[in-house]
Design a protein that fits this description.
Layout: H1 3-13, E1 19-24, E2 30-35, E3 39-40, E4 46-51, H2 55-62, E5 65-72, E6 77-88, H3 91-97, E7 115-131, H4 134-139, E8 144-151
Antiparallel strand pairs: 1-2, 1-5, 3-4, 4-7, 5-6, 6-7, 7-8
Length: 156
């Protein structure tokens, strides 16, 4: 992903509190749950905190392909990120991303033995950016929609 594409995606998802993380269970079912994005790093990877014993961790370890769905209905912005996920126990990264508010889920803080990270390497991103003027919204007039796909060639 080039710098311009990275900035566009970062701008689109910034301020969207939750992404729906979709993974595949061992029986083949797709499972979805809300996650809070902690960071989009300089390479475009997305980081999330998780409990190491949660079902999503077992699912990711078995089948790494995931999808993240971001939605801001008020701004009419929708972003779908497909990629591969990995589980990380990198304490330096945990220290960097951990905030006091995370103690709600991890009471022992950043040293909580249940704490781990999920890193999603984006391989394909698709977004819809619909900007509706007040008049168009009130009168149901047509809207201008930008729909774009970004394929990412990753050297990893």
């Amino acid at each position: 992903m080039n710098k311009e594409e990275l900035k566009k995606i970062r701008d689109l998802i910034e301020g969207i509190d939750f992404a729906m993380l979709v993974s595949k269970s061992s029986s083949g079912e797709l499972r979805s749950r809300p996650m809070t994005t902690q960071q989009m790093d300089e390479s475009g990877s997305l980081w999330f905190f998780s409990d190491k014993d949660s079902a999503k961790i077992f699912e990711i370890e078995e089948f790494s392909q995931v999808n993240l769905a971001y939605s801001d209905h008020g701004k009419q912005i929708y972003v779908s990120v497909s990629g591969s996920a990995e589980v990380s126990y990198d304490q330096t990264k945990i220290d960097e991303l951990f905030k006091p508010s995370h103690k709600t889920w991890f009471p022992m803080g950043k040293d909580d033995p249940a704490l781990c990270l999920i890193k999603v390497h984006a391989t394909f991103i698709e977004y819809w950016d619909s900007r509706i003027s007040k008049m168009a919204m009130l009168w149901g007039a047509s809207r201008e929609t930008k729909h774009e796909r970004i394929s990412i060639i990753d050297s990893n």
